[in-house]
Amino acid sequence: MTVLLAILCIILLAIIVVQIGRVNELAAKIRGEEEIQLVANRRHGAFSLAFMILFLLASIISAWYYKDTMLWYGPHTAASEHGGSLDYMFNITLFFTGIVFVITQILLFYFAWKYRGEKGRKAVFMPHDNRLEVVWTAIPAVVMTFLVVGGLDAWNEVMADVGPDEEAIEVEATGFQFAWQLRYPGPDGLLGAKDFEQITATNPLGQDWTDKKNIDDFHPSELVLPVGKKVRVRITARDVLHNFYLPHFRVKMDAVPGMPTYFVFTPTITTEEYRQRLGALKADGTPKYPEWHEPVDPNDPESPKKYENFNYELACAELCGSGHYAMRRLVRIVSEGEYEAWLGQQQSYYMSTIRNTDADPWKDVLFDSEIKERAAEFNDRVTKALSSESAADKVLALEHVSYQPGSAELTALSRYQLDNLVTVMNNYPNMVIEIGGHTDNTGDAAANLQLSQERARKVYDYLAGKGVAGARLSAVGYGQTRPIDTNDTPEGREKNRRTEFRIVAQ
Amino acid sequence: MANTAIKPVVTEEDLLIEEYGYDDHFHEHHHGDKYQSNFITTYIFSQDHKIIAKQFLITGMFWAVIGALMSLVFRLQLGFPEENMAWLRPVLGKWITINDAGIGTLAPEFYYALVTMHGTILVFFVLTAGLSGTFSNLLIPLQIGARDMASPFLNMLSYWFFFLAGLVMFFSLFLSTGPFSGGWTAYPPLSALPQASSGSGAGMTLWILSLVFFVVSVLLGGINYITTVLNLRTKGMSMWRLPLTIWAFFVTAILGLLSFPVLVSGFLLLMFDRSMGTSFYLSEIFIGGQALDHVGGSPILYQHLFWFLGHPEVYIIILPAMGLVSEVLSVHSRKPIFGYRAMVYSILAIGFLSFIVWAHHMFMSGVNPFISNFFVIFTLIIAVPSAVKVFNWIATLYGGNIRFNSASLFAIGFVSMFISGGLTGIFLGNSAIDIQLHDTYFVVAHFHIVMGVAAFFGMFAGIYNWFPKMYGRFMNETLGRLHFWGTLIGAYAVFWPMHYLGMSGVPRRYYRFDSFEAFGQFATMNQFITIAAIATFAFQVIFVVNFFYSIWKGRKMTTRNPWGATTLEWTTPINPGHGNWPGKIPAVQRWAYDYGKDGKEFIPQIKPVEEGESEAH
Predict the structure, then answer these.
(1) Which CATH superfamily is domain A169-354 in?
(2) B607 within a domain of the structure (yes/no)
């Protein structure tokens, strides 16, 4: 029914339109074609003039109205060092084109009105004028030369890569459908190698873990950069084209699968300073940019003001599929000190996600940092146990000490923790300990008891071999008799399979 | 010829043709008429350039309406993203997803399909085939004094390949996985991998197929236009006596002939990558949970091949419009076009330069920044011949006696649009400024005004001006003028604000803007643009109604040369039959722009130069 109605309306409108049109033809018949044409010339000549005035007014007024949201003015000042030179080129181009725009639009519509057809008027026969044509070929040529020179000067400076002896922070941004993956080099300052064939769910960039440079790389969720430091962004893509776009910094570069690109820039305004600019007040105390003083939530006047919530953003500017419009990441520009503090909090992606999993090629190796960390942690626990009054606290698990399956052979990496124990025994010459072996409840209880005894003995032998007096050591196998967790789950059983030591005297 | 038989009015033109014309014995052989012996060969598989022109025009109009409707749907999404779109479900089906509250939303995949199809259809089907196809066909033989194209048969094939291309593209709109949705430029890897986007499957296959047919059509047409202009000019029609329309069509055809094959080669490699496991454009891709074994290709290569066509393509679109506007402005100002030779040289210069600027579309795509230096220089040089053309058009109006009608109004509007859109090109062509403006709404505003709206204005000027030649009737003037003012104001209202969006960094091809703080602050402006777009579309409906109404009911033409034009097409009978002139072919005695010379209103090209009269240029 609605469709029918709509069709009827359209037909009706069409009939009306046609009838309006016919009025003119009838008038032409009555008044004569020439007369009607003269009326039309007068009318549309006047329209031309009116349009020209309104059009120019509209373009000036709208530009004024939208000045706060425009680039290169007020709230949209570039937040990077090179941004200014691009903004300058924009303005100088706007200046020249603005002049040409106003003059040509005025002449076009003014001439149309001025030379509207009138009875008795004769058109001037003016096929060409070489002097005029030379002038208006030469002027654009000169202006273009000026713009080209200025533009290329800025371009080549902005696009230059980091020189060999220049210092710059290198970070990496990888676009994929539909997000950005950020990677920082970590303390070594170097990004590790990667290979797209090694990409998995846990290795989103295909980092090659055998490359030691990867060990400390981390994947933050925000792009955090210090103010005033040169940054080189390595831009890559995993699947289709993307574009690394930082509107406030005048940074834009395609991310191309198989071909890393880059953009070098220096942020000059911290997020906090930019917020203050947006929230600035005029001399009379009213906001300079009122639209930034509106509440974030229009329904809640108490919510923070827009400028207080302002953030730099990273976007995608190359069509990459249905989620192209939502590849947002926050960008924070902070002071040098805040940046160092933030770096300190970041955890290496490898250490948090890959270490000791099947994907880890360094499973059989302990890094120096890990050895130090474990020793410190172990000493800490022993110190606590020594100062404690409770008997239960005097029993300590020997973490990281393990055996070959079903045997009492110590695994290669167990020695690091046992060495820590040796150090403790040497530091506390009066300390006497009992080493206890435990198993879970799988298998034969007697065999388990035997195995636990052998395992405890192995630890005993290791310590003795390192010079700890036998009188200060004893080894006991408890088998499955003293579980500390349920034996019904694999996790519980894993906890129950353990080697402990009890401080007997200190 | 029935018409001339009934009205054996002998005019001055007839006498001039009879006296000076060239007798090619065309009508003694009657081979002209064997093409038109029945309905099918007259109106469907016609080999007559005038019928083929109409076929191109009406097919182009069909696609223009489809493309415009698509733009309205995605404009609704951008202007009113929260609005219920459930009412579109009968048309768009599953692409409108209805949530539990009954609110219909346009699927992002289909939004991108609409944007892609809008671009493809408008650029290729409407502004290439609909504009150049129509007027090259109509005007080349008529204005150079030829019986028809050099090869009417290839000309017919040209249309039917275009028709086939349209058929394939139309079919792709109804695929269950949707039409292609990776942007009209179809950059790989997005366009190469069905895993990357649902439209990159069957939709992309049909898209390529359709455009390959389209290129065949352009090449068949182009080779015909070039041959006809070079070989079939009538006696006395030297190159320097050609109207600017013909110069424009001629250079356009050359551009197409040189650039479209490169596009096809680009597509061919893309097809290999898609279906034969080659890696021209693909390298190191991990998608859909697996690493592909394509290594060593470069997506940038495709961009080079694409834009080697893509940039000349925008001149393929705008040059015919420039030609039509030059002619229309001159005829209706009753003045010669100012600086005819400068106009020709600037067409040639623009045509030449259009081949060495393509990488200005790729400043930010990862090409070596050093290379961009050359492309910046050549790109900004184009501003010079373009400026010359603009100044010459304005100088053509100066001192005229302008007849305001729909055709001349659209020609004036074209100049205004070309200025506005051309000037923003100076920003974008300068790579330093392009860093920020690339792929923002500033680009959308720029190319829509300069090659979208301006080309449409040229096309409308042409249609209103030559409609009497096509159908023997006039289009309604009141409606035409209403159409003009509505479109001029409407188009500026749509595209002018987009400059502000672009300057503030809003990227194009975003399904919605509120996912970013920086881009989401223009809701009111986006609503305004959408409303303006709907209003502008309504004015185009007036044009369509006017067009079809006037074909059958328009005011009849009573004289051969209603505009007082000098060119040859107005010396034919009101309804020219096959072969265009009933007797001899007119011979040309002078250039095409003797308006107001020696106190005479106009002097047709067929009139000999009088004694003591000097040729004007």
Answers:
(1) Cupredoxins -  blue copper proteins (2.60.40.420)
(2) no
